[in-house]
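Form 7-S
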Amino acid sequence: MSRELTNRMLSGISDQKLKVVQKNRKNALKALKRNTKQKALENYKYESELIPLSHGEKKKQKVYNEKLEKHQKKCLEFLKNEKYRFKPSEGMIKNQKSQEEEETSIFSAEDFKNWEKDFFKASETKQKNSEKQKYF
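Output:
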């Protein structure tokens, strides 16, 4: 039906003018569509203003920020160690020594040495026994 109305209105116009008018109309519709999309986006941006966080969300955000800060410090420490690997500062040396002291295990270095001695003695005796059995 709209096509018929358009044809009636444009019946008095020549074919060349008809093409120009239709082209202009098509371009105007495209521009209108583009503009309405832009306005819709602008309205959406203004509608999505900041909403204050609830109490639970604030707690979550605080925990996430603490975790992020911890990981950032860890990454910075790795970068410092990488950059100053061959010439560390005194502060870095102190930090590393304090970290090593904090990271103590149940077993001391002497316990590990004793275990190694016992383990290798047992393996040596097994080898000797196996050699004796070969000859008999």
